[in-house]
Amino acid sequence: MKQSILGKSGLRVYPIGLGTNAVGGHNLYPNLDENAGKDLVRQSIQHGGNFLDTAFIYGEGRSEELIGEVLQEFKRSDVIVATKAAHKKQGNDYVFDNSPSFLTKAVDDALKRLQTDYIDLFYIHFPDESTPKDEAVQALAELKKAGKIRAIGVSNFSLEQLKEANKNGDVDVYQGEYNLLNREAEETIFPYVTEHRISFVPYFPLVSGLLAGKYDKETTFPSGDLRNSQKHFQGETFKENIDKVNKLQPIADNHGADIAHVVLAWYLMRPEIDVVIPGAKRAEQWIANKKAADIQLTDTEKAYISDLFS
Length: 310
Prior knowledge:
By secondary structure, this protein is α/β, with parallel strands linked by helices. It is built from twelve helices and eleven strands. It has one domain: Alpha-Beta Barrel (TIM Barrel).
């Protein structure tokens, strides 16, 4: 199977990963079927995927537990597992904590839930307001030396926070929002990660299905749906986005693929991006997304897509 190397980490991953916030993420999605979630993870591995992206906050550890159960069915070295932590319970709410003591305990707790003795990639999920970021990453560097993690990541950090975190060159992967409707990272984060051989992993790649060609201008969402509060889904902006997405259909037809696959392929054409992690709730969704790894967009197609969403 085609594989990419995540930055300077040495981790070899299939370019289409699996975002698992719908695997046990009961606090994020209603009425999740845990057996379906486990089957999604299982089938993604059986069909050639080897990169799973999870986090403590996906179900407050439940996603990690379900993934840990499925991992027992496979050779551990065949699967690359990334997880994240920063959320600390304070009363009925969560606060972010990047302190070395918190991160050390978070790694140990995640190892237990995942039923493994090492985590391939561990991210600081969100920055806190007080911990020096180089001290936080130094704690992870110590855990890396101890063999508990193999690579270090940070997520949702500003450029200045990333620079501080990478003071000693220990950051391997950066995860942040990036998609055709939000390309701010091209100006802020991409130049730095390119210079320092840090792999950029984009989240929210299909913007809740908007960039997958799933909706039309008449689509509405039920009360309480998160999309009702997202700017890309508002009024005329939503209709304009639908028009742009529909213009990708000829390119998708040219490659015998869906619009979603063309969008994911466009991300993978960027030298900063080695892997994408679209979410899924059903195994067939991830299997369909695999097509993106084999699409080779022409220079003309790449430029057209870039200009369309500029």
